[in-house]
Amino acid sequence: MASTTHRSTVGAGTVGRLAHWGSDMATTAVRYSMQRIPLYRRDRRSDEGEPPDLDRELPGDPATVQRAREGLGPLFHRSYWIVVTDEVLTGEELINYILEEPNRVTPTEMARFETLDGHPARNLEVGDELIVRLPGPWNGPVRVVERTPTSFRLATLRGHMEAGEIEFRTSTDPRGFLEFRIESWARSGDPLFHLLYERLPIGRELQQHMWSQFCRRVAAVSGGVRMSNPACTTHRYDPTS
Predict the structure, then answer these.
(1) What confidence tens digit (pLDDT) does each residue in 181-200 have?
(2) Residues with Cβ < 8 Å from 160, sequence gap 6 or more?
(3) Domain locations in the chain as residue ranges
(4) Full-model pTM
């Protein structure tokens, strides 16, 4: 009887997750088609030298980190950024605002930052581990591995759909404007995502849409005047072995 009950519970949970995935994917597709924003983009094979050291020592248990070398296909260096002026919040204050509660600037129909026990992520610090809940069959476990006054960095953990790192930072551009930038170095973490990202445009388009929306929300939170639409560049490093 206990075994039957357990199977029923597992089955109901699986059906619930599939329904949730389907609902989120449908919402994401509709919003993507109806709310696409102008986005400057440039994709190319890399001409910018070698990637940074992605095998360096990181805080926390090294056995649970999903390094870029463990991924599939090319290494992609992606940057998304937006520039504002006359901002109310400084760059440091913006980073603090995001870390206090990242879902405030995240398009939550596409991604939700949660603690490992399912609560909304708040007040993130180096060493914290969390789950980025995503539509479809993936969730994105990550760890905060770096924090400066104007930036923070996440590393992917086992089970993430990508293998690598992503950084969020603010800076002052040459014109004196405030820039917010998201920069990642990653490979696909599993064959399905490799197919959707590398072979088909679905994964890439939805990812660009999500981080572009994130950039726009950060710009709005800054209280400043947006100087442009979000921009995106992608550099591809083909594996040599």
Answers:
(1) 999 999 988 877 777 666 66
(2) 66, 138, 140, 141, 142, 189
(3) 36-237
(4) 0.82
